[in-house]
Backbone:
């Protein structure tokens, strides 16, 4: 009798848990679909040649934002990539894994990753706009962003370097290669796809960032930036600007453009990461 | 020093931190001989051969005392060119470890390290090394294919070819056939009897039959010491030490 009841209760609990987790999953998917669908339905009809490629005049355009975003990506990645990849190489190849130095660098990188982006923003504002009197500029925003994406690049590059089997490094050393030759001819090529993936993800972060840029690049939505030192805007900032200045349709349309770009970037990163994942490196 | 490529080890101790992995090692390995190192796992055989091309340099807290001479030179003397040492003392690992690049680039790796850039010269080295490793016929039409497309046995012969391409005098092999099937193992054993005409070979093996088949001398390692070292036939037919006898007859313990 008692045994039977216990059994029944187990089945009941199992069914309830299964239902609850399914419901949770369903809500997740609904939320995702709702966000995308709502923005798409509101925004898609307002995407036009004028909006994307036109000059900012009577009608708003996101051409300045597209260019500004490109500038920001170029500046931040070209600064953060060499520093980040270099740091990761130092951490994995040149230091003993448990030394004090490595531990403190790692804590520093984690902390950098945990800082709220608005704090980066105020830092960039105080340094470039206030202290250096450089005014609002894409270069100031780009440099601030480069600090923000540094931990993303360091951590994922480190991971892909660590996934290169030790036996390949040993094989290279045993053939008389120096440390530098081993790193550049064996380790980095093996880790290349992982590193590229991390750079793409970093680009995604730059494209979707807004808090840093509000305080550093000036949100000049109506002028095409003339160069690195001119003020500008980005796609994410345009969404904010349009939304708060009475252009809800344009805000939604810009949101769609941003969404499509970020999702594309993430898909590319995922495909690259899967295609050249760890399994390909060594037959272990 | 070109002719003499003997290995002479005198009173050598090796510590990993507090653990002493090798104790009072004395051994003379003659050139153009195959010397087999046998003994139970963890007895220091691999540590010993890694000492001969200074691969132990990569291990933290590894201390070595004593004298290790190769070709009349103390390889642990200050100012020793480790890259040159490793060029002269090639190594083949337990698991095949081809680089994830083409067969050609694998073989050309060491020559390129040492500054050979001319395509004709590289082509020659690649062909010769693959022939020496008995892989030329199987690989000649797919030199640009990834080395990872080869089978395990072929990969190990590729690794041997890659080591030979550096033009070494000595070849260290750390259980090169333990991950391979019997047919691939047979091919590599045949290869060794060819290679010993030109190279000094030191091979770690867990396979007694392999040691008797391929080696001229055998050293029996136990707990970091060399218990017995001598001509292979006499070690296997008339071991002087009781412990050697127990090990080679499988009555270890």
Residues:
């Amino acid at each position: 009798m008692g045994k039977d009841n216990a059994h029944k209760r187990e089945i009941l609990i199992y069914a309830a848990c299964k239902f609850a987790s399914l419901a949770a999953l369903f809500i997740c998917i609904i939320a995702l679909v709702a966000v995308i669908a709502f923005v798409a339905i509101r925004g898609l009809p307002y995407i036009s040649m004028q909006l994307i490629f036109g000059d900012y005049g009577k009608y708003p355009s996101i051409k300045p934002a597209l260019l500004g975003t490109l500038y920001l990506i170029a500046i931040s990645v070209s600064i953060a990539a060499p520093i980040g990849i270099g740091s990761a190489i130092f951490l994995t190849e040149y230091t003993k894994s448990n030394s004090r130095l490595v531990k403190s660098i790692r804590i520093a990188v984690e902390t950098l990753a945990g800082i709220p982006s608005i704090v980066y923003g105020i830092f960039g504002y105080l340094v470039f706009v206030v202290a250096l009197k450089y005014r609002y500029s894409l270069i100031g925003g780009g440099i601030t962003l480069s600090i923000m994406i540094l931990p993303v690049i360091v951590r994922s590059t480190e991971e892909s370097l660590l996934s290169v089997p030790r036996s390949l490094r040993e094989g290279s050393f045993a053939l008389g290669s120096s440390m530098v030759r081993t790193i550049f001819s064996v380790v980095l090529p093996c880790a290349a796809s992982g590193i590229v993936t991390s750079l793409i993800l970093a680009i995604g972060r730059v494209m979707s960032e807004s808090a840093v840029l509000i305080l550093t690049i000036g949100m000049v939505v109506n002028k095409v930036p003339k160069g690195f030192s001119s003020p500008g805007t980005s796609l994410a900032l345009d969404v904010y600007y349009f939304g708060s200045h009475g252009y809800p349709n344009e805000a939604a349309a810009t949101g769609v453009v941003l969404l499509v770009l970020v999702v594309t970037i993430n898909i590319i990163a995922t495909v690259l990461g899967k295609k050249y994942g760890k399994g390909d490196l060594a037959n272990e | 020093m070109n002719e003499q490529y003997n290995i002479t080890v005198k009173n050598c101790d090796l510590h990993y931190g507090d653990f002493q992995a090798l104790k009072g090692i004395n051994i003379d390995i003659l050139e153009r001989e195959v010397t087999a190192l046998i003994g139970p796992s963890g007895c220091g055989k691999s540590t010993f051969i890694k000492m001969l091309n200074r691969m132990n340099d990569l291990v933290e807290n590894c201390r070595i005392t004593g004298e290790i001479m190769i070709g009349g030179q103390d390889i642990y003397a200050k100012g020793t060119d480790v890259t040159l040492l490793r060029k002269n003392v090639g190594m083949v690992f337990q698991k095949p470890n081809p680089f994830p690049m083409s067969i050609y680039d694998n073989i050309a790796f060491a020559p390129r390290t040492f500054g050979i850039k001319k395509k004709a010269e590289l082509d020659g080295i690649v062909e010769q090394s693959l022939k020496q490793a008995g892989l030329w016929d199987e690989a000649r039409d797919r030199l640009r294919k990834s080395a990872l497309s080869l089978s395990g046995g072929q990969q190990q012969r590729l690794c041997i070819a890659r080591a030979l391409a550096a033009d070494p005098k000595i070849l260290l092999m750390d259980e090169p056939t333990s991950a391979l099937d019997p047919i691939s193992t047979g091919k590599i054993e045949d290869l060794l009897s060819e290679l010993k005409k030109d190279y000094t070979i030191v091979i770690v093996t867990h396979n007694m039959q392999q040691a008797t088949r391929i080696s001229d001398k055998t050293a029996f390692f136990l707990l970091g010491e060399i218990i017995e070292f001598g001509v292979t036939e006499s070690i296997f037919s008339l071991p002087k030490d009781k412990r050697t006898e127990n090990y080679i007859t499988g009555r270890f313990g």
Summary: The longest strand of chain B covers residues 19-29.
